[in-house]
Amino acid sequence: MRVEGLSVPYTISTDNTLSLVILLCSLLSIMIVMRSRNILSLRIRSLFVHTTNLSNYRRTKNNAREELFLTALSVMSLSLIGYSAELHYFGTELAANHYLVMASYAGIFIIFLLLKRLLYMLTIPIYCNIQQWRAWRHLFSFTTALQGLWFLPIAIINIYLGLSAPTTLILAIIGVTIAFFVRIYNAWSIFFKKKRLYVPFFLYLCTLEAVPLAILSSTLICIAHTLKGA
Predict the structure, then answer these.
(1) Residues of the chain with pLDDT under 70
(2) Could you give the CA distance from residue 6 to residue 212 in angstroms, rounded to a whole number?
(3) Residue 141: closest CA among 57, 202, 209
(4) Are 43 and 66 in contact (CB under 8 A)?
(5) pLDDT given for residue 55 in this prediction
(6) Which of 44, 130, 215, 224 has its CA 20 to 30 A from that of 37?
């Protein structure tokens, strides 16, 4: 029952605009999966059963557009999960506007993806040929897009079915961890396996994968505390 004079706490589930956006994104993602399910299945299989044929990593223009949409979906879903975690751990202490919180998390993830792609562009072509670089670029885009199909259902269950914030975070971390190890495995297969370059592989692992992920985690924690007192 609503008490006169008391404001109703904001929840995403009662935000009609955001709910409509989530519904449209869900329908579009389902259409993409249904239309490209055979190609998606083959490309996912190639991530775990590696062959020397780099054509497994190729994509069409339609694939590129679908991946761009799913990447945006991944960013949006993570921003919703971030808002849920912020609200759970800080509760009524959260003073920042809810849209500001979600936009802040979305901005961090977009900057992270852009900087990581730039870092790849500056370093990886140094020790690989153009075919290997193209395969890796497509691999990064594809694995990032796949995360959108993982994060969106988690965000929806959290928002509309009451999945707890800690469980939501654990499931999100599982998705990030799987993508992390998939990229490491494929980087070894594409760049280092033939020549058995163990030291360069270790340097790649630290500088291009582990360190950026650690910086992202630290940045998210700092932003969470900043927004708490905004």
Answers:
(1) 1-9, 50-58, 91-96, 227-230
(2) 44
(3) 57
(4) no
(5) 61
(6) 130
Q: What is the pLDDT of residue 139?
A: 87
DSSP character for 211? H
Write the CB contacts of 135 (distance below 8 Å, at least 6 apart in sequence): 54, 56, 57, 58, 190
Q: In angstroms, how far is the first alpha carbon of the chain from the final one?
A: 30
Q: Could you tell me the two tokens for 147? A: 């995360």
* Rounded Cα gap, residues 61 and 64, in angstroms: 5
- DSSP state at residue 227: H
How far is the C-alpha of 60 from the C-alpha of 193, rounded, in Å? Answer: 27
Cα separation values, 159 from 47, 105, 115, Å: 31, 17, 30
| Residue 18 · residue 103 · CB < 8 Å | no
Rounded to two decimals, the pTM is: 0.84
DSSP 7: P
pLDDT of residue 168: 92
